[in-house]
Amino acid sequence: MDAKHWDLKYAAMPAMWGEAANATVVTELRDRTPGVAVDIACGDGRNAVWLAERGWDVAAVDFSPVAIGQARTRSGADAVAWEVGDALVWSPGRPVDLVLITYLHVPGLAAVLSRAMGWLAPGGEVLYLGHALENLEHGTGGPSDPDVLPDVGQLATALSGVRIRRFEHVDRPTDNGTAVDLLVAVSGWV
Q1: Where exactly are the structural domains of the chain?
Q2: Which residues, including other chains, have CB under 8 Å from residue 28's CB and lie 6 or more apart?
Q3: I want to staple 41 with a disulfide (CB 3.0 to 4.6 A). Which of 18, 79, 87, 155 is the partner?
Q4: For residues 144-162, b (16+ Cβ closer than 10 Å) or e, as one string?
């Protein structure tokens, strides 16, 4: 991962992912009671702002200064604590009710999810959404490097011992066909 590469992408295409929050994120979280949330690898902030508009106390982190700069200009952005930071090492300063991780594609995603589980307050949840490894063969778009896409088997092993609310493939319509995403919603046992 290279922040400069993403800086160039965001500079060339502001609002790269659109203005609205991700539809799957909205479906998963619209009925949740607001609390403290972190949006890891938040990009240009669309999901973080959506959470804040619903009453969440949100901290949002991305390693691209350009993305964070764009996020700070969104309507409603003043309600979010924005930070330039590396999702692989950053951590919140307090327990949280929600860790949102969307489209973070890195080797060792299981370790990122495991770290995020350690941040949760009782009853909290980690929600991950990203392109699935199966997208390479059965979907469209997203990274073409299989080493950065989540493997269902590896994630299932890594999630042993946590409470799994959702762990499934989600088809997402795009202008170029259907993308195959992986949705993971997990929490600790209370």
Answers
A1: 22-46+87-187
A2: 127, 129, 166, 183, 185
A3: 87
A4: eeeebbbbeeebeebbeeb
- Vertex 40, ends 188 and 96: CA angle to 5°? 40
User: pLDDT (tens digit, 0 to 9) for every residue of the chain, 190 residues total?
Assistant: 678 888 788 888 887 677 899 999 999 999 999 999 999 999 999 999 999 999 999 999 999 999 999 999 999 999 999 999 999 999 999 999 999 999 999 998 999 999 999 999 999 999 999 999 999 999 999 999 999 999 899 889 889 899 999 999 999 999 999 999 999 999 998 7
Question: Two tokens at 188?
Answer: 């600790």
Q: Sheet harboring 57-62: ordered strands across?
A: 80-84, 57-62, 36-40, 96-102, 120-131, 177-187, 163-174
